[in-house]
Specification:
The complex is a heterodimer of chains A (363) and B (229). With 363 residues, chain A is of the alpha+beta class. Chain A has two domains: 3-226, P-loop containing nucleotide triphosphate hydrolases (Rossmann fold); 235-362, RNA polymerase II/Efflux pump adaptor protein, barrel-sandwich hybrid domain (OB fold (Dihydrolipoamide Acetyltransferase, E2P)). Chain A is built from eight helices and 21 strands. Chain A has helices at residues 39-47, 93-103, 114-121, 136-149, 166-182, 194-200, 218-222, 339-344; strands spanning 3-11, 16-24, 28-32, 54-59, 62-66, 69-70, 78-81, 154-158, 187-191, 203-208, 211-217, 236-247, 252-257, 260-265, 274-280, 284-287, 298-309, 315-323, 330-338, 352-357, 361-362. In chain A, the strands form four sheets. In chain A, strands 7-8-9-3-10-11 form a six-stranded mixed sheet, sandwiched between helices. In chain A, β17 (298-309) and β18 (315-323) form a beta hairpin. Chain A is globular and about 65 Å long. Chain B is mainly alpha-helical and 229 residues long. Chain B has a single domain (5-218), classed as MetI-like fold. Chain B contains eleven helices and no strands. Chain B has helices spanning 5-38, 44-56, 59-70, 75-82, 92-118, 121-128, 133-144, 146-161, 165-170, 181-190, 194-218. Chain B starts with a helix and ends in an 11-residue tail after the last helix. In chain B, 38% of the residues are buried. The chains are: A alpha+beta (363), B mainly alpha (229). Chain B: It is found in: Cell inner membrane; Cell membrane.
């Protein structure tokens, strides 16, 4: 029963939320969608801050809401990180953390120690400061540490980076990844930013107009050509891989994933370390023959699985299967080419093709 | 500037009255302000209007009805008599009760404004940190509303010190029991003791100035006549 089941309806004059989703009770689940899609409302319903008129909500078998049941937010084992500064202004950073420590349940299986939370978020030097003496990024890190110290069994994060500028955002992302790596804490993460989702999420719930329009693992949902949200330039896949080799001379690293491998810039990751790579659809071009005299490093033999027209009628999205003939392991890539090229290459399901990858990013 | 023993008694009585009233007002006014700031009840408007009545009504009207209410045949009078407490008019307790009603808006409105100013967010945060409603009130509402509470206490105190009409209607002029400074000044003037009236009046002016000066220096956003938002 390791899952979160939400069957909720919320009726407002301007907006309806109507979802029926199941999310895994571990890892990072992203509620992804444009603003106004209902992702924050869904998160608030899960926290109990908003009371859905009808529906049912279960967390790992526990009933949080049903027709005659409503567990108030202060009795749910959650931590919540709000979008903008939410530190108590009458308390110092330390006071804010202690507010959580004092109220955390005593009986916890694997409690997060105060020092661990402080270290994970890198806020050791900030504890004496008042919220107004902290930068936006620092405030958000303290708020995340505070949410951890309440010893939640589910961490809810409502666009914790949205109010920050890019440098602050890049400052916090590694802390979030650390959180994910070090704690066995399921996280529901609301975001409208494809790059954050690609970096952090394992599971995706795509929201539109108050409905969940696609759910599934990140790799599955992002490689679907009928993915309902228009990602435009951000369309692309995310693959879980492992560093297999590092080439000292050319400063490149070989990353293997199910069904294939790519060479990319050596980012300093040790051999055998797990990395996540993102390949955007616009960065994959297609060729009938393997190009020998090209600067492109990565060319993978693939098979066309599906072809559709993109948002712009001049462009086509092509889903490609990359398969290891020995093991049968496979992954999917998405390429975006002009519709004319697709026609000239005669692309159709089953066509063998070379996927030339212009750029791969470790995220 | 000299004070007669009767003046000193009046000063002491006034301070005692204002202190009791202020404490009671904070006790009654804070939950009321909290309720007014958060409720969506249809009672919000009528209750707000009743709380604000003393700002617009002449003290004599307020005093008159309080007198009837607390008198031997009034509902409260019958209750206090049944409890063996006698009747409240022309006693210190009666004066305290009347002053609480009279100064209520000066306490409720600053607190309500402060609570409305910080909004729902800190309370939602506290709820996700496992703080129940009562815990939220003490750990978030009170500290966040502190400037409002301070303004409320100062205004409640000063307003009680400055009342006259209600005291005359409810308390009369009993030395040591209901004869407060404002009434004592009136007595001095009636007796053509202008020097005595001047001493006490000057004291009141200085006191009021110091209080208001401190209030504005401490909390520049405090608005007097705070009565109406």
């Amino acid at each position: 029963m390791n899952e979160i089941l939400a069957r909720l309806r919320l009726d407002y004059p301007q907006f309806n939320l109507d979802v029926d989703v199941s999310m895994p009770g571990r890892g990072v689940t992203a509620l992804f969608g444009h603003s106004g899609s209902g992702k924050t409302s869904l998160l608030r319903c899960i926290a109990g801050l908003e009371r859905a008129g009808r529906g049912e909500l279960r967390f790992n078998g526990e009933l949080w809401q049903a027709e005659k049941v409503f567990v108030p937010p202060h009795k749910r084992p959650i931590g919540y990180v709000f979008q903008e500064a939410s530190l108590f202004s009458h308390l110092s950073a330390l006071g804010n953390l202690e507010y959580a420590v004092k109220r955390a349940p005593r009986q916890v299986e694997r409690p997060i120690a105060f020092d661990q939370a402080v270290e994970l978020l890198g806020i050791g030097g900030l504890l004496e400061r008042r919220p107004h003496q902290l930068s936006g990024g620092e405030r958000q890190r303290v708020a995340i540490a505070r949410a951890l110290l309440i010893q939640p069994r589910l961490l809810l994060m409502d666009e914790p980076l949205a109010a920050l500028d890019l440098p602050r955002k890049l400052e916090i992302l590694p802390y979030l990844e650390g959180l994910k790596r070090e704690l066995e804490l399921p996280i529901i993460y609301v975001s409208h930013a494809a790059d954050e989702v690609a970096r952090l999420a394992d599971y995706l719930v795509a929201m539109e107009d108050g409905r969940a329009v696609a759910t599934g693992t990140l790799a599955d949902t992002l490689s679907r050509l009928d993915f309902p949200l228009h990602l435009g330039e951000e369309a692309g896949v995310v693959l879980e891989g492992m560093v297999a080799e590092r080439d000292r001379e050319w400063k490149l690293a070989r990353v293997i994933f199910d069904g294939g491998e790519v060479w990319l810039r050596d980012g300093g990751h040790a051999v055998h370390s797990e990395v996540r790579v993102r390949i955007l659809a616009r960065d994959i071009s297609l060729a009938k023959e393997r190009q020998q005299d090209s600067s492109i490093v990565n060319a993978l033999p693939a098979t066309v699985a599906q072809v559709t027209t993109d948002e712009h009628a001049g462009l086509a999205l092509v889903r490609l299967e990359v398969k290891d003939p020995q093991t049968g392991e496979c992954s999917f890539l998405v390429s975006r080419v002009t519709r004319r090229s697709a026609h000239l290459l005669g692309l159709a399901p089953g066509t063998p093709i070379w996927a030339q990858i212009k750029s791969v990013a470790v995220i | 500037m000299t004070f007669s023993p009767a003046d000193l008694t009046a000063i002491w009585l006034t301070l005692k009255l204002a202190t009791c009233v202020t404490l009671l007002l904070l006790l009654v006014g804070t939950p009321l302000a909290w309720w007014l700031a958060n409720t969506h009840s249809r009672w919000k408007s009528p209750v707000s209007a009743v709380v604000a009545l003393p700002i617009v009504l002449p003290p004599s009207v307020l005093g008159f009805y309080l007198l009837v209410f607390m008198g031997p045949n009034g509902p409260l009078g019958e209750l206090t008599q049944a409890l063996g407490l006698g009747v409240l008019p022309f006693t210190f307790s009666g004066l305290v009760l009347a002053s609480v009603v009279y100064s209520l808006p000066f306490v409720v409105q600053p607190i309500q404004n402060a609570i409305e100013a910080f909004g729902q967010r800190p309370l939602e945060v506290a709820a996700t940190l496992r703080a129940g409603p009562l815990d939220r009130f003490f750990s978030v509402v009170l500290p966040q509303a502190r400037p409002g509470l301070l303004t409320a206490a100062v205004l409640g105190f000063a307003h009680t010190v400055g009342e006259f009409g209600v005291v005359l209607m409810i308390g009369g002029n009993i030395p040591g029991e209901t004869q407060v400074v404002s009434v004592q000044i009136y007595d001095h003037v009636e007796a053509l003791d202008y020097a005595g009236a001047h001493s006490l009046s000057l004291l009141m002016v200085v006191f009021s100035f110091v209080v208001l000066f401190a209030l504005y220096a401490f909390n520049p956003r405090a608005v007097l006549g705070t009565g109406v938002k």
